[in-house]
Structures are given as structure tokens and as C-alpha cells.
Amino acid sequence: MGPVDEGEKGTGGAAEGPGRGSDFLQLDIGDAPAGGKAEWLARRLRQAIADGRLAVDSRLPPTRVLAAELRVSRGVVTEAYRRLAEDGHVQGRRRGGTVVVAAPSPLPAPPPAGASRPPVPAAAGDAVTPAALFPGSPGAEIFEALRDVRARVDFTPGRPDLAAFPRASWLRAERAVLAELSAEHLGYGDPRGAPQLRRAVAGWLARGRGIRVGPEEVLIVAGTAQALTLLNPVLLADGIDRVAVEDPGSLGTRQHLLHGGLATPPVPVDEDGVRVGELRRTGARAALLTPAHQFPTGVVTSGGRRRELLRWAGDGGLIVEDDYDAEHRYDRPPVPALRALLADRVCYAGSVSKLLAPALRIGWLVPPPRYRDALVEAKRFTDLGNAVLPQLVLARLMDSGELERHLRQLRARHRRRRDAMIGAIAEHLPGAVVHGAAAGLHLTVTYPPEVPDTALAAAALARGVKCQPLSWHRQLPGRPGLVLGYAATPAGAIAEGVAALGAALRELA
Ligand SMILES: Cc1ncc(COP(=O)(O)O)c(C=O)c1O
């Protein structure tokens, strides 16, 4: 039977991941020669089957989905699948979609085995004034303090649309997992994570981020936060006591490094990404970076800068790659993770916090081989491993294709909200500049006149709108701005919230 295209319903026919759309194998149609797209696609798929990114038994995305993703006609994808079927690599399975049945060459063998700032006053209900919530130097409690404050419109960055959490799918998957679960599964699990989830994550990373790893290289953790907490002592034991960070860069992740006793020298970010010359000048042997979508500026590390970074890493540097929201992209082709290019020098961290919900506290760490054992030990002594049941449910959602379907829905919804925010900014914040809106769940806006962003955020909160000042995420001086999450807010509320920001700015100017 030739390739078929009925993979929309996860029928569980294929053992490995479903290989549906989103960021599929990092394919960029811009690389295809005009007039030769089907052959180009077939060649890229053959390569992926040969090198194990598309494992035997995994399902190719439905042709409709991949065609939409690549912005080609469906005929191009159908023709590519037909060629693969012709040379025996894939087979159509009616309701199971098109499945990889043979690799052209053997699959690769798995590789061998500081003090935080002073705290802000605790949020005590209405007693805390908006100004007190936006100090110039926020402490570790700041995020909880701000979360406790109710606001009419919440632009806190870093949250997907939590109202869209796929409750029905989760329940269905949990019921199925419980029905199949043996009693042993309810005992202590593998501290590295449930094998099912490590396998599913390896497939997810191969398809979506271009990372080729075996399940034994994946460590399941309680989010990027725990990944950093586990990593800190391992780095210190390796003689690394400073981790350079982007500037501006995430206050939250920097706080985790500081808490672990690591210094965080800042390195400026420009429109190509982090400045590698300045990174070298810090003398730090490690850097925490967000290359796919820099937090908070949204810059995508350019090709030239990626090569410079890889040279720095090749000279002995370690990149801690925080891939916090790379799945959410709108107007740009996917960029592969740095971990896909330099496995020995990149420690990769990701999580479901932006994909499903931060409350799940599930993430993954793919460390360089030399740190793996120490990290497994750190995880074992921290908590003996993540809770097993949610891991099995997540593995099932990944394997059945439901997670990718959810991601596609989220993307469409988030894109509408992003567009609504950009439109509202043009209307209510004239002269403001929007940064980094091509991907992610937030954008950053800088504005004239340059009133302090902490004052603007406080004035906005007084008008019922919550957001974060850009200066919180800076160690070096720089322009004021606001970091505005749009993904969790409906378009109408976005317009209302941005109008209030405009009014707050006019009041302060
Ligand atoms: C830059 C950055 N990295 C990582 C995370 C996610 O952390 P976790 O996976 O622990 O939820 C966030 C959350 O907002 C973030 O902003």
C-alpha cells in the first residue's frame, strides 16, 4: 500500500512518535531548489530515517499538515512520500497514516554511557502598593508577590493559554494509562524518568528540535528550574563558579544560578544574539543562553553568531541551552537547537511549561555525556525521580500525536492574540517599538518617552494591568521597556490592557 494520510486520529498503530507537523525535522523550504521540492523533501526524509531522527515505526505527519507547515502544495508532500514508499522506507497503513518501515542504513548506536537580592516586602493583600511591587532590584519572592495581586488584565510573560489545557485528552490518556498500569509501576520509578517518557521525549526532540539522542541520554526533571538546580553543584564540582548570562536575560533563571552559588556575569545581547566577543571577555567557562528565542528580547541567534558560539564552546565553553518556548513560532522557519550541533558542549533543557502548563512541573535535561552520571545522582538524591503517573500520561500524549495537535491549536490561538497586541500597541503606544514578536508567548516593547519602566509597570497595575518591567531582566544599563505576555489573554482584554498601558504612559510623561 502506498502512503496514506489518515494520521489525524492517534490510532496507536505506530510504536514511536507520530511525527506530526510542527517544526518537523527543522525543515526549511527556503533550502529547496525551485522545481525540485518533492525530491528535496524526499531526500531530507531519507536522511532523517538513515540517521535515526525518524525511527522505524514512527509515523510521518499527515500530508495536509506538513504541506501547511512548509507552505507547499499537498501534492509536493504526497509525491515525496510516494518516492519513499517506492524505495521501501515507508508504508501506508490506512488509519495509521504513513509509517517508517525500514532505514537505509543501520540506526546509530546510542552513545556511551550567590546570594539573592534583598526580598521585596511580602504581598499582604491590598496593603502592598503597586509601587512597592516594582522595586528596582527585585528579590526571589517577586514573582510570587506579583502573582498574588489580582489584576483585570494579566500580561505576565511565560504562560501559554492555560484555559486551553487539553483536559479531555489528559483525562483520556490518564484513564488508559491506569487501565494498563501494572502494580510495579506504582512503586519507585527510575530516577532518570520513566523509560516511556524518555523515549517519547527523544522522539519529540528529534522531530521538533533536530536533536538526535537516545532515551538513555534524557533525564526527566521538574522543569528547567530543577534542571538548573541539579546542574549548579555539578558545575561547581567541575570548577565552574560563574555562568555568563544574557543581558537582558531572564531574571528567574538567573536567580536559580545565584541561589546555587554561581556568579552570573552579564553579556549584552544585540539583534544577532549574545555578543560572543564579550562572552569571551568575561572569562566564564559556561553560559546560560536562550538561542531559539532570546528571553526577553525575542532575538533569534543568527547563523553567524551561532557559528561564533559553537567556536567558543569548541574552545572549552559549556552552553546551557534554555529552550523554554521554541515550539511557539509564527513567522519564521524553525531553528535547530544548538544541542543538535555540538552534543559534547551543550547542556539542553526544555519543559512542558509553555506547551501544556507550568503546574505539571515536567521537563527534560539532555546533558553532555560527561555530566550525565553526576546529574542522575543529583536527581536521585533530590527526589528519587519525578512522579511516574503524569510522566506516563505525557508519554502517551506525545506518542499518540495529541500533544502536537494541541500545539498546533495553541499556535493559531497565540498568533491571533499576538496580532491583537501588536495592533493595540500601534494604536495606543505611538512610537513604541515591538521586539521579538515572531515567536514565543510574549513580546517586549520599548517606548518614548523614557520614563522608568518600574514606574510605568506600577502605574499600569494601578489601572488594573499586570506586566513586567524590562529593567528587572537587566544587570547592565539599557532602555526601559515592558515585557508583555499575550498568550494567556483573549484579544478583547489585550486591547483593553494595552489602552491602559498607553494611558499610564501619558500620565507619567
Ligand atoms: C527564560 C525561561 N526559562 C525557563 C522557564 C521555564 O521554567 P520551568 O521549565 O521550570 O517551568 C521560564 C519560565 O517562565 C523562562 O522564562
Core attributes:
about 500 residues, alpha/beta, Arc Repressor Mutant, subunit A, Aspartate Aminotransferase, domain 1, Aspartate Aminotransferase, domain 2, 3 domains, eight-stranded mixed β-sheet, four-stranded antiparallel β-sheet, binds pyridoxal-5'-phosphate
Fold and architecture overview:
The protein is 39% helix and 12% strand. The chain has 15 helices and 16 strands. It folds into three domains: 24-100, Arc Repressor Mutant, subunit A (Orthogonal Bundle); 125-165 and 405-508, Aspartate Aminotransferase, domain 1 (Alpha-Beta Complex), CATH 3.90.1150.10; 168-399, Type I PLP-dependent aspartate aminotransferase-like (Major domain) (Aspartate Aminotransferase, domain 2). It is an alpha/beta fold. The chain has helices at 37-50, 63-70, 74-86, 142-147, 167-180, 195-209, 223-237, 251-259, 276-282, 303-314, 369-383, 388-400, 402-428, 453-462, 491-508; strands at 90-93, 97-100, 153-154, 219-221, 243-247, 266-270, 273-274, 286-289, 318-322, 346-351, 363-366, 433-435, 442-446, 465-466, 468-469, 482-485. Strands 4-11-10-9-8-5-6-7 form an eight-stranded mixed beta sheet, sandwiched between helices. A four-stranded antiparallel beta sheet has the order 12-13-16-15. A two-stranded antiparallel ribbon has the order 1-2. The chain binds pyridoxal-5'-phosphate (PLP). The site of pyridoxal-5'-phosphate has 15 residues, from helix 7 and helix 8.
